[in-house]
Amino acid sequence: MAPSFKPVEPFDIVVFGGTGDLALRKLLPGLYHRDLDGQLEPQVRIFGAARGTLTREGYQKMVREALKQFVKEADLERAKVDAFIERLQFVRVDASGDAGWDDLRAALEEGTPNDIRVFYLAVGPGLFGTICKKLAEHDLRTPGTRIVIEKPLGTDFASAQAINDAVGEHFEEHQIFRIDHYLGKESVQNLVVLRFANRLFEPIWNATAIDHVQITVAEDLGAGERAGYYDQSGATRDMVQNHILQMLCLVAMEPPASLDADALRDEKLKVLRSLRPIVGDDVRSKTVRGQYRGGAIDGKPVPGYLEELNGHVSTTETFVVVKAEIENWRWNGVPFYLRTGKRLPSRHSEIVIQFKSVPHSIFGEATGGLTANRLVLRLQPNESVKLFMTIKDPGPGGLRLRDVPLNLSFAETFHIRYPDAYERLLMDVVRGNASLFMRKDEVAAAWRWIDPIRQGWEDFNMTPKLYAAGSWGPTDATALIARDGRNWYEDAI
Ligand code: BG6
After folding, report:
1. Is the pTM of this model over 0.70?
2. What pLDDT is attached to residue 393?
3. Is residue 174 a part of any domain in this protein?
4. Which NCBIfam families does the entry link to (predicted)?
5. Known active-site residue 243
6. Considering Cα of 153, then 154, then 155, then 157, what sign does the dihedral take?
C-alpha cells in the first residue's frame, strides 16, 4: 500500500543560489516530490533568489527543465508539474551587495505571507555570514524564520567557529539547520530504529560482543567537475568530518532518552568528545591517505586525479582510512575503521558490525570452521540489512557449517520509491524538527578531532599514496587493518 503523508504547515521558502546545481538537482525536485505526495498546502510559495537577470517565466522554465532531468518520467504528472511551477517566483538579489533585498521583502510580504519562512543558503560558505547579516538589516527575519546551511562548514575548527558565530549573530541556534544529507538517508535513520526498536541488539552492542566496526563510503566517480572545490577539501574534510563521523555517532551513541533533537544530539556529542585524539606517531599508524592515478572502472579507462586537475600539482587526498577509537566503557578496545574514497571499484556504502567469535567452539575443523556473526547495513545502493549467521548445511553426509545472511532487502520488501535525503530534511526544517541536523557543538567537536590528523600529515610530510582508479585504495589501507589481524569486509566476500 502506498504510504500517505500528512501535509506540513504552509511555508515560504527562499532558495539563495536558486539557479545553482544543488537547487536544480536536489532541492526543487525534492520539493516537487513532496508536492506530488500531497505534503505541500496550496499556500506554499517558493522563491528562487540569485544574482542573474531572469524573469519569473524564465526561472519557471529553468525549473521545469530541471524536473525533466532529475525526476523520473513516471513521476512527472503534467497537472502536478504545472501546479508546482505556479508556486515559483524569482527575485534578483545580490547576496553581498544591497541590490534586491527590498524586492525580496516586498515579494515575501505580498498577499498572505506564511508564518514559517525558510531561507535555504545553497551558496558557498563564504556567503553564509553576509546573507544572514543582510536578512537582519533588511528586516527579513520573522519569529517563524529558519535558516538552512550546508557543508563545507569551515575547513577547520577555527573557520567553522567563525561561520557559526557569523550566523549565530543574527539567528538563534534553534533557527539554524545544518544539513548533513547522510542523516536524511533512509538507511541511516534505519540504523537508529534497528538499534533502539529491537530488543535483540542492545545487550550485545558493546565491547563484550563486538570485535570491530567498519564504515565505508566508496564512490566510483572521481572529483570531476567539482575538482576545484574538492582540491581545497579532500576526502577527510569532504566525507569524514561530517557524514562518516555522524554515522559513527549513530552506531556508537548511548540510547537517548527520546528522539527529541537535543536528547539525540547530546548523545552524539558525547561520542565525538570521547574519540581518542590521533596525534604524533599515531597519525602514521592509524591513518592512510591516497590519491587516484589513472586506471579502469567497469573495464573503461578513467583519468587520474591530477589529469582531472589539468596537470596541476596537488597533494589532496581522494582516499582516506582512519582507525578511530572511542574512549568509554562501551567501546573500550573496539576499533572503528573509517574508509572513504573516490574512483574505487563501485559506489557502495556500508556499515559492518563484526561480532566476536563464540568463546569456545565445539565444532571441529572438518565441519568447515566457525565464522563470527556480522551485521551489515548497506546504505547504498540497494539498501539492506544482513545478519550473517552460522547454520548447518542441509543434508546428510556429516555436519558442515555454513555462513548465511538473514537478508532484509528494502527494495524487495517494500515496493515504494525511496525518497531523496533532501525531501525528508526539507520537511523537517518546516516542522522545526532539528533531530537530523547538526548542532554547532557537534560540528566543532568533529573538527577538533580532525584538525590534529591533518596537522600530523603536514608535520610528517605524509603525502598521499597513489592507487589505481578502480582499486580499493593504496596497499597501505590493507596493511593498516591487516596489522590488527583483520581484513576489509569486501575481501571477505
Ligand atoms: C557530498 C560530498 O557531501 O557527498 C561529495 O561533497 C560526495 O564529494 C557526496 O560525492 C556523496 O553523497 P551520496 O549521497 O551520493 O553518497
Report:
1. yes
2. 87
3. no
4. zwf
5. yes
6. negative
How many CA atoms, within 13 angstroms, populate the side-chain half-sphere of residue 61?
A: 5
Distance CA 278, CA 144 (A): 42
With a Cβ cut-off of 6 Å, ligand 1 is lined by 219, 238
- Rounded to an integer, what distance in angstroms lies between the CA atom of residue 66 and that of residue 22? 11
Please tell me what DSSP assigns to residue 480: H
CA 433, CA 450: separation in Å to the nearest integer? Answer: 28
- Statement to judge: residues 102 and 211 lie in one domain: no
Domain match, 247 and 146 both: no
Q: Please check whether residue 140 lies inside any domain of the structure.
A: yes
Q: Which amino acid is at 341?
A: G
Q: Nine-digit cell at 110?
A: 505580498
Catalytic site residue from 33, 170, 212, 243: 243
Q: What is the mean pLDDT of residues 300-305?
A: 94
Reported as a single tens digit per residue, the pLDDT across 174-206 is: 999 999 999 999 889 999 999 999 999 999 999
Helix H or strand E segment including 474 = none
Structural domain that includes position 82? 11-150
Residue 92 shares a structural domain with residue 187 = no
pLDDT digits 0-9 by tens, 107-137: 999 999 999 999 999 999 999 999 999 999 9
Q: Say which DSSP state 275 is in.
A: B
Domain termination residue (choose one: 107, 134, 150): 150
Domain CATH for 468: 3.30.360.10
Q: Are residues 192 and 52 in the same domain?
A: no
